[in-house]
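Annex B.
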Amino acid sequence: MESLNLRHLRSVAAIARLGSLSAAASQVNISQPAVTQGLSKLEAQLGIALFHRLPEGMQPTEAAALLAPRIERALDHIGSPLVTMAQMRALLTLAEGGSYARASAITGLSQPALHRALADLSIVLKRSMVERRGKGIAFTESGRRTVRAFRLARAELRAGLAEVETLKGREVGRIAVGAMPLSRARILPEAVAAFHAQHPEARILVTEGAFADLIEPLRDGDLDVIVGALRDPSPGEDLEQQPLFLDRPAIIGRRDHPLAGGEASLARFAEYPWIASPQGTPLHARWRAMFENAGLELPRVPIECGSVIAIRHILASSDFLAMLSPDQVGLELSTGLLAIIGEVPAELSRTIGITTRSGWRPTRVQAAFLAQLRLVSR
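LysR family transcriptional regulator: predicted structure tokens.
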């Protein structure tokens, strides 16, 4: 993507929108021969025709019909027609590397070249991007907003290029998934395996974390979707939540726990120590509600833990109890290492689903993955 010229991409969007080279040249403020030359170069780079040259004007091919809207959205994020791909790359690499030295190592550009690119970008956008903090650097508020805008622009351009490659018979698209704890237990592995069998050339990037760790990468465009427990209320107007299924947690303990196999009351469960999920998570709120709705004091919680792997080991060797989805300990339940010690009231079920950016338009490959995810969730 970095080898592409933003001016050429702007020309393609203008041609698709206006239907002629001369009108596009006037709008992007460059000569018609330059627009023609830029279009030819871009078509050569992509290996596909973008327009049919007809007497009445320029008619977009299917490739341009897919690519042009992505370019338009990317340009909206970038904001200025004067920004170059080199400046965009310099800012994003500096943000991801954290220093000019690291950005230089990533890009192969000299540090003076990076400094010049960032200085030129600040002049073009009329705002400061970075400032000195001791021996290091920090992004200004304007810089942070610009980094997010450029990341979203990059995501749109990558998606457009992936769709063009799909037209050429190569599924080189990618989907970046944020995986919250419950999704990692069953639905995401099953969906990934089934999707890969059908789309072996597509890339799937999975990043594990809690909601708080994943939400900003989603907003930045580094993630396409988060799979896990949905938030109520919604985390923001810039995000969309789509339910997949209802998950009903259960009270889990070791198979020979003192309360196993009986009809213990919630009051009896409250007498034992618990491992609770971290405060602020939906599961923690449901755990509290289970006891508070019954008029009981909360049990002792010597351990707060968000790691299911750690929780499983602690439960297996102690009298601790935990509220978990049976999916999260499916193997331990099937082998008898752990057991469902008690049921949780049905009203404490949680909705598992996907969270995306508002207005996000998945590529064909990404849409196929989401369809597989929904199929597994049924």
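The chain has a mean pLDDT of 92. Residues 216 and 222 are 9 Å apart (CA to CA). Further annotation is deferred to the next reporting cycle.
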